[in-house]
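Reopening closed ticket. The problem is back. First fold of the pair:
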Amino acid sequence: MDPYRYDIRPVPLHGAALRQLDAFLEANGLRLDRLITRYLGVFEGEKLVAGGGYAGRVLRCIAVDPAHRGEGLLGALLARLRAELAEQGHLFLFTKPQNEPLFADLGFTALERAAEALLMTSDPGDFTRYLARLAALRTPGPIGCCVLNANPFTLGHRYLVERAAARCTRLMVFVVEEELSELPFPVRIRLVREGCADLRGVTVLPGGDYIISQATFPSYFLKTADAAARAYCELDLRVFARHIAPAAGITRRFVGEEPFSPVTALYNETMRRILPEAGIALDILPRQAVAGEPVSASRVRALLAAGRLEEARPLLPETTYRFFTHPEAKPVLDRIRAGIGREGEPR
């Protein structure tokens, strides 16, 4: 890249700059991911000719104007992005499958692919180590799993885990690790562990970077059931079915029915297609109802936001209820009242 001709600088994500960015991405067959917190543009004067953004450790919306390809802009842009994220460790990158050779030449390795999306990583060894840790937990007999966000852990979650545990020798409960919910991850996984402590054969684990994360399934956090969500859905489930389940010895996955969230309903639908192909059984269990109404974490949060903890109590395990009565819950309740977190609420 000619530094006298081009300039790399942040693109403000508002006003006229945002409109210019939206037009640039649309012209390159992309749209701005609303999770992106920073976007760097390569400018020729005031014309945006290349750019890329990130959310956390995931690079997204990388594009180069066709008229400027072959000029080293992509390499210079990625070098700048990687420098900004150097303290984050390994990075992930979303792109279209046909772009794999471009990014492979710049140090990224394909992790998994779907028809319309490719997930790449700067450190494939991290995934290998993740799988090895799961493999070390394998035990004889049927192993099942379920994945919870648990924002917060409710009797609905407990109902799902209890019934899933009764159908297998060992149940792995993965808790979504991304910090995009009102309850911080350390609180969510603590409440799941406390709420399942009496259940035999249940192991509660952090989901990490590879189970419903910004890297594998950002639409889970955006709550948009569109074409992009379908691609991300498939990516996340192929990572699970082709890599995680075999390493951990998982042969059955348990989910609850989803009457509320379109994205989670789409996820369940995609599981029906992908998991059996990999020899993994899918059990969709009915949701627990209280007073004729399905238990949902969003309903609990609404009651907590309104200061109606006692009304939420019938929807909560005693361990979760006790947490919210303790002074340490005040920062969490403040976040719930402020609506800090993501849109919507799947299980």
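Second fold of the pair, where the issue appears:
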Amino acid sequence: MNTFYRIARVLVRIAMFFAHPVFRVSGRENIPEGPAVICCNHSNLSDPIWVILGLWPEHMPACMAKKEVMQVPLLGALLRFLGAISVDRGNADLNAVKQALKALKDGNNLLVFPEGTRVRPRKVVDAKTGAALLANRAGVPLLPVFLTRNKKFFCPLKLVIGKPFFVEKQGARITQQELQLATDHLMGEIYAMEEQ
């Protein structure tokens, strides 16, 4: 799997070069040594590919994908082969939570798009608190990442990797308010990097 992933990563970068020849990455020094919940803004179906290419991890991170995408015949099969975790966004998907926590506890990174849907430039949606919850339960940091929202062909892209941080809590169990504060802070960090 790792050999397949490394070869596929190089081939995909070559293919993506023709759509976006200029792809700048900054902040790689911020990538933590151990597992983390990688959180990026979301504007295009290609976002997971760019994030993985930008972080250039040694192992394929586990990715959260909405169940509708996983049901597309060929795409769903490929995503399952790559270890994607299907999420039912309309319900409390406990199975997805268990799979995500297992991936983190096994030492893998987890890629999440907290907005839960593609967000066009100049649009704003309320981010979900699931990423903060997973990071807190697994005892791993959140890693904020910003990716250029304009994906028109040949536009230069940039990926900025922010500083990781842990979700703070006061008591033994984290509250919904604390999760919301962590999520608001996370999204603020992500979009602040748009100007870098």
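Update: turned out to be a display glitch only; the data is intact. Strands lie at 23-26, 37-40, 62-66, 85-87, 110-112, 142-147, 157-161. The longest strand covers residues 142-147. Please close again.
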